[in-house]
Amino acid sequence: MNIRLFFLSSIILLTFASTNSYCNETKIKSCGNLVTTPYKSSPKFFAPDGSRGEGVSIWINGQLKPIPDTRAGCLPIPLRYNNIGAIKTPKRAPWTGQIGKDDKSHAIFGSVEQGITAWGLWMKNRQKPGVKNSAFSIMSLYAPPDDCVGSIGIFPDCPFGINPTEEYAARVAAAVKKQPNDPLNLDATDCKEGRDVLYALLQEIASFEIGGNFCGKENKKSKTFCSINREIFDKAMDTAYSPVKWGPCSDPAEAHEKE
What we know:
This protein has helices at 3-23, 77-80, 112-125, 135-142, 165-175, 194-210, 212-215, 230-241, 252-255; strands at residues 56-60, 63-66, 98-101, 107-109, 227-228. By secondary structure, it is mainly alpha-helical. The chain has one domain. Helix 4 crosses helix 5 (165-175).
């Protein structure tokens, strides 16, 4: 089937499913997560039931736990769409595993792993020979300082504010013990550093995009943070970049000590 025809069919099917799954039911009035108010009482777009939020844990009473309420209307967009990196649909063709997109072109995936794989490809495509990326350079592309939060509104008239790019970059850099303009190793085939850096980046980006009020925090002194299952992340990176150069990332003796 022509890829464009397949993509359009997927969107039609997704929209049809959304209409029949939610719009004919009683609107959601309350949610069983830290954020009890629904994000959308009857959302138009969402990923398949049973897939949303897989491998994502939030802080509840000082413990990391699976998301209690995964109804579409009870989840922010990155979780509702299995798109924890909040990436958009490419102009040329959809991502592999993408089953639809919303009105603002945010990609919707069939699984969390597929969404992370697409994020890995997005990161891979930003790595140019001889060019060193930093947290600030990546975040300037990811959340440009001349754009609105969530791309809602037309800069500088932004209902939810302008992207806090510098703050975003500082938090991401700190997660890998770097300064915002320090060069980063973003090679996911390198288990000595690159893959760990990407994992730290994704968790910070996901926490930022999902929202601290949803992710929660371990205690009053901790930062808000959503945890991403490492096994799902590694499978996604193997698909996006290819397996690591030596040994599995889960085997430090084999993967991290080889020079």
